[in-house]
């Protein structure tokens, strides 16, 4: 099985990079991508957990905003982790998350909700990129909600009055950076309408012109009709079709390898990187 979208405690997952690889092994995953939000901090630890039965695809999920303010996530896989421009984009995106979180906490507190920035930091693992899941965990700890999913449903969705966007590269900028660093770019869950506004079919033309390699079609937040539309787009534009779990660990329903990528599609995607960077032992 091939799972090309997972998260660890280096961003907003609950499993350490080492534990994530072990869980993938136990699940039967043969090719695992580690794609923490705007970070490559978990790469080295994940590599230490490798065994001959599994190979590791190093990457990151880059938070983007279109020019009209729609949130888009771009998976960068197999890029050179030493590329300075790529690391600068990731760093800049991480830096904007602190003021964003401060504003969200202020909005919640203004409505009498029991939360503070210190509560959020206490719920954020050391070295992790702070994000909404950590705010959700803090709300659970404070007894405001019972679980993460409830926090996102009622307080933290993109449509919530408490949601605050943050400065981010455009999807085109992210793709250009990923490709310049030798990697491949796959747009994550592009039609996940339950998350808020989504991009239009026409958007894919600009993304392809920038060098988009693939579309994450098989994802739990996209229904059968949305998956079929994305499949048709991928075929029309000669893009690779991927599937993945978007696994975050406990507190989120996504199960490891609940959606996977066809081996032939993965082979086609990997061949488009400028070097063979899959990590094996």
Would you spell out the secondary-structure blueprint of this structure?
Blueprint: E1 2-3, H1 17-27, E2 31-34, H2 43-48, E3 55-65, E4 71-77, H3 84-95, H4 97-110, H5 117-122, H6 132-141, H7 148-156, H8 171-180, E5 184-188, H9 203-210, E6 214-218, H10 224-237, E7 240-243, H11 263-270
Parallel strand pairs: 1-2, 2-3, 5-6, 6-7
Antiparallel strand pairs: 3-4, 4-5
Helix content bin? 25-40%
CATH architecture of the largest domain: Alpha-Beta Barrel
Q: Biggest sheet: strands side by side, in what order?
A: 1-2-3-4-5-6-7
Q: With helices defined by DSSP (H or I, 4 residues minimum), what is the helix count? A: 11
Mean pLDDT: 94
Structural class designation: alpha/beta
User: CATH superfamily of the largest domain, please?
Assistant: Metal-dependent hydrolases
Sheet bearing the most strands, described? 7 strands, mixed
Q: What is the strand content?
A: 5-15%
Gap between N and C termini, in Å? 18 Å
Query: Could you name the ranges where pLDDT drops below 50 across 5 or more consecutive residues?
Result: none
Number of domains: 2
Q: Write down the CATH topology of the largest domain.
A: TIM Barrel
Give the CATH class of the largest domain: Alpha Beta
Shape: globular
Kindly state the number of beta strands. Answer: 7
The Rg value, from CA coordinates, equals 18 Å
Order of helices and strands: EHEHEEHHHHHHEHEHEH
């Amino acid at each position: 099985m091939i799972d090309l979208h997972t998260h660890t405690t280096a961003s907003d997952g609950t499993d350490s990079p080492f534990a994530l690889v072990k869980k993938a092994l136990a699940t039967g995953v043969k090719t695992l991508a580690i794609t923490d939000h705007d970070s490559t901090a978990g790469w080295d630890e994940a590599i230490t957990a490798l065994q001959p039965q599994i190979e590791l695809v190093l990457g990151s999920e880059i938070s983007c905003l279109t020019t009209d303010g729609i949130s888009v996530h771009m998976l960068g896989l197999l890029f050179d982790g030493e590329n300075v421009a790529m690391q600068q984009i990731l760093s800049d995106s991480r830096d904007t998350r602190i003021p964003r979180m401060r504003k969200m906490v202020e909005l919640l507190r203004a409505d009498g909700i029991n939360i503070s920035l210190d509560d959020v930091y206490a719920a954020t693992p050391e070295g992790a990129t702070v994000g909404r899941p950590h705010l959700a965990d803090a709300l659970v700890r404070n007894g405001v909600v019972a679980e993460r999913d409830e926090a996102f449903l009622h307080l933290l969705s993109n449509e919530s009055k408490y949601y605050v966007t943050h400065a981010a590269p455009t999807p085109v900028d992210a793709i250009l950076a990923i490709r310049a660093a030798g990697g491949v770019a796959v747009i994550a869950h592009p039609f996940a309408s339950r998350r808020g506004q989504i991009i239009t079919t026409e958007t894919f033309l600009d993304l392809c012109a920038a060098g988009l390699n693939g579309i994450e079609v098989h994802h739990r937040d996209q229904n059968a009709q949305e998956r079929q539309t994305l499949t048709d787009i991928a075929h029309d534009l000669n893009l690779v079709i991927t599937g993945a779990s978007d696994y975050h660990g406990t507190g989120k329903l996504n199960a490891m390898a609940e959606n996977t990528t066809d081996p032939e599609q993965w082979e086609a995607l990997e061949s488009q990187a400028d070097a063979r960077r899959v990590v094996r032992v």
